[in-house]
Amino acid sequence: MEKPAKYMSTQRKNYLCRLRPSPRQLQVLNLMVAGKTNKQIAAQLGLSVRTIFMNQHNLRERLQAATNVEMVYLACLLGILETDLTKQTLQN
After folding, report:
1. What fold is seen in the domain 12-91?
2. 62: how many CB neighbours lie within 10 A of its CB?
3. Model-level pTM?
């Protein structure tokens, strides 16, 4: 069982803060999970495809993930991304 947040060590808090994606990275991540391509994400957010790629790259580095699939998986495990699947897993 994990300690309540107020008892969490400063080192652990700093580690979790470093993992937290920026609001834009979170938008991109959610659109990826929705099945959008980089081109579709770029059009929807009014950004270039290169900017979308860099957001993905930076978040992959932050989570130390090798691929986009691993990035989404880790985001679910860490509670960064909440999907129907993670809700079902946590309930069982």
Report:
1. Arc Repressor Mutant, subunit A (1.10.10)
2. 17
3. 0.70
